[in-house]
Each structure stands twice: as structure tokens, then as C-alpha cells.
Write the C-alpha cells for this entry.
Amino acid sequence: MSMVLAMWVAVCVDAWLGEPRGVHPLVLFGRLSALIETHLHADRRIAGVLAWSLAVLPLVCVLWMVQRFLPAWSSWCVSVLVLYLTIGLRSLGEHATPVADALAGDRLDDARRAVGHMVSRDTEALNASQVAAAATESVLENGNDAVFGALFWFVLLGAPGALLYRLANTLDAMWGYRTPRYENFGWAAARIDDVLNFVPARLTAFTYALCGHFDAALRCWRTQAPQWDSPNAGPVMAAGAGALRVSLGGAAPYHGVWEVRPELGEGDLPDAVSIRRALSLVRRGVALWLFVALLLAASMYGGAHA
């Protein structure tokens, strides 16, 4: 029951405060990781494994040891703090809402600039529908990466699990690219993130189905996700697009080149409303997780005291 209460409190604190003002701890972790990369980078997989281990494992182990020796109430407070720092539900809205507002006001240049903070594609080449698609896809994918994944690992392994997941996800965003520099060095970061996200991504996809158009979500998940390069982003975005009954995916510009991507979802082209509906879908999913966790904890507590 204390773990479920920690989840509720952490989500409420995130909704109240949002991301920490000033320098976010994940930004400091990024700087540490960049320093490690500077000293250990080599075009070998073992170098990437060593760099990943040095960046992530000491921090997770320190957190585990600190909580082990703290009084129960202090350890619980640390759990709330760590989970709050590893989720970004309010941040999703703070990044996506300006895009929706700009599109609704026919301010395409403003929308392009705003979505540029969410995605890595060349936003200046996007039309209004493509900007809406980029923002909607980002909300759906980050619903898993920045919210549900951390909640899953928190339930499974407590605060160390949530920290492990978020740091691994951050390193995947830094090193998990198929470029000459990271093809081998970033292999470990990409593969570890794939493993840690395998179950959460599918739970997220099913959550989107439960909170949206169920049949369409499952149909798109089944038929479209296997065509996507990422084994985890595919189910999440295909199910999310189906749940929203909106058409996503398709060609997108990266570094001056339009890359062909599979189609996702079904229905109308995305617009400002699609972005807001995607945010609402993620929020309903989080509410569902919290209430299910509360019901399961209450059931277990009642059974133990029967």
C-alpha cells in the first residue's frame, strides 16, 4: 500500500510542480554521461557496455544502499522524490500544448518552432498536418518513455527500478543511434533500453486501447507495429494512433532527407485537436494505472487481514 501511495503522491507532485526549475537532475546525468563518453568512446561494443555501466550502475546502487539504511518513512519520501523526478506527465503537456495552440491559431511558424523542442526531424519543412502528426507521435511515444515505463519499473523494483529505467532511457536518447559514431558504442544503450521497455511498451499500447477506440487500437497494433523499426515504439504509436482514430507515420524529413516510414493508425489527418486528444489519452491511462494499483493493493491488504 505504501508503494501505491508513493505513486499517487509522485504523480500529484508532478502535476503540481512539473519539472524542477533550474537544472534537472537528468540534465546533470547527461553531462556526466557526455564526460564518460569523451574518455571511453571507441568503435567497439565493449566500450559502450563499460560506459553505460559506469554511468548508470553506481547511481542505482547508491540509491539502493541509501534506502536500505534509511528509516522506513525517510525511504518512502526518497521513493516519492525519485519517482517524481523520473516521470514527466506535466512536461508532456507543457511541450505539446503550445504546438496545438499555435496550430489552432493558424500560426504555422510558431507551431514548427514549438514542435522542434519535441522531435528531431526538420520541422521547417513540415506543413500543418505534419506538425500535428509529429507532436501527436511524440506525446504517444513519450507517454511510455516518460511516464508508464517509469511507473512499471517502480512497481517492480521500487525507486532503484524507476531510476534504472529513466537513466537507461536517457542514454538511449544520447547514444542509441545507427550512425558511424554510435553504431557500436551505442549498441548497449539501445539494446538495454529495448529490453527494459519491452513489457512497459506493450502495457502502454494496451492502456491506449482501453482508453480509446479499443478495436481500432488492437487492429493497428497487430498489423502496423511489425512494420516499424523500433520493437517498442511500433506497438505504442500504432495502438495510440488507432485508439485516437487518426493517421500518423508516413514520410518525415531528417537532416535534409525525407525518410519513408510506415503508416500508423487510421482515420483523419491529425490537427491541433489530435494533439490534445493524445494528451488526454495518456492522462486517462495514468489515472487507470493508479486506480488499478490502488484496487490491487487494497485487495491484497484486505486479504492479508482477513
User: Anything to note?
Assistant: The chain has one domain: 2-304.
